[in-house]
Amino acid sequence: MPGYFIRQLSCHNSVMGTGFRLTGVILWGLLGLGCLFGSVAPAGAAPPAGKLLVAATIVPLGDFCQQIGRDLVQVQVLIPPGASPHLFEPAPSVMARASQARVFVYVGAGLEPWAARLLRSRGSKNLVVVEAAQGMPLLGLNQQDHHHEAAGAQGHTGKQAEQAGAHATHLAGNPHIWLDPVIAQEIADKIARALIQADPDHRAQYEANLKDFQAKLAALDQEIKQHAQTWRLRDYVSFHPSFAYFARRYNLHEVGTIEAAPGREPTPRHLKNLVAAIRRYGIKVVFAEPQLNPRVAEVIAQEAGVKVLRLDPMGGAPPYGSDYVQLMRANLAALDEALR
Ligand SMILES: [Zn+2]
Q1: In a domain, 191, yes or no
Q2: Neighbours of ion ligand 1 (CB under 5 A)
């Protein structure tokens, strides 16, 4: 897959597309990292002639752009695989390289505060911006807390999160919308509209590619539904509430989260509550996320006598690489093991 670039599509293409000037901001800078998981353009290279430059903040959005743009686009992802988007701050050089993109795609909902800064400060007449979360009702943390036997997400909002500092997350609602394959189809539609706005000559191709990709996402949704019917357990413990939209779609119940906020250690009391909830619900597995340190998950699993498996909200790592559908299949396999 090509390198990673960003463009943003928006529900308000006609409005947003004209207001921004992202001079020099998009991140060609992560090319070295991009090479780890895709056929990214060589560092410092100019984009291939005739290709539309697209920058996306996270690997799944980069994949969506690639699926819809195919050989018409050069896609660069700004947040490298393995990094938590909650903890990521781009280097100035990365921001500078991002400026070449014609389309910039980000999640929004507070996931990439630096992207908003970048758009505000740079703007671009020729930049089409897509905020994936725009116009979408977000899961709020208060709502999630009601479902939690073992509180853990409370730190994502309110006073505790504020005290946790700049990296407190989900303050604007849960941003992990891309992990619901049905919502992913809406995001794909926004991206396609942005690509068409930036490159109207190829409208027919973008529309055809969009249709193909949405069909793949619909098939993925059906596949997950079929698996979900075989799950005996509906309760799970996550590392942080990244699978909240997925859980809502497939009727799973997150009974607790390990970290109150990414990178923030849980208290001994919280750990004790989690272990108690794991026993009470007969949970067999604690999930870790590859972007966050699994140590605490391992401690809890040992204490509760359960296994640690991995749910990956981001992708970009072997064996699935940057392919979203393959990423979700790997997550599905972990869920099968945990819940059957
Ligand atoms: Zn999060």
Answers
A1: yes
A2: 169
**What is the CA(87)–ligand 1 centre distance, in A?**
10
CA 228 to ligand 1 centroid distance, Å: 23
**Rounded distance from Cα 66 to ligand 1 centre (Å):** 24
Quick check: 251 pLDDT over 90? Answer: yes
Distance CA 140, CA 336 (A): 27
Q: Measure 189 CA to ligand 1 centroid, in angstroms.
A: 23
**155 and 202, same structural domain?**
no
Residue 5 lies in a domain: no
CATH number at 160 reads 3.40.50.1980
Tokens at residue 121, please?
């400060």
User: Does one domain contain both 82 and 226?
Assistant: no
- Do 197 and 230 fall within a single domain? no
8 Å CB contact between 250 and 323: no
Nearest Cα neighbor of 190 from 53, 8, 66, 314 is 8
Cβ burial, residue 282 (10 Å; 0-12/13-18/19+) = exposed
Q: 121 falls in which pLDDT band (50, 70, 90)?
A: low
Q: What is the domain count for the chain? A: 2
Closest alpha carbon to 20 in 134, 121, 135, 131:
121
DSSP 206-223: HHHHHHHHHHHHHHHHHH
Structural domain harbouring 256? 148-172+220-339
Q: How far is the CA of 196 from the centre of ligand 1 (A)?
A: 30
Distance 225 CA to ligand 1 centre (A): 24
Q: Ligand 1 mean position to 242 CA, how many Å? A: 5
In this structure, of 21-30, 118-127, 136-145, the range with the lowest mean pLDDT score is 21-30
Q: What is the largest CA-CA distance in the chain?
A: 60
Q: Are 186 and 45 members of one domain?
A: yes
Predicted confidence band of residue 35 (pLDDT cuts 50, 70, 90): very low
Question: Cα of 241 to ligand 1 centre, how many Å?
Answer: 6
* Same domain membership, residue 282 and residue 206: no
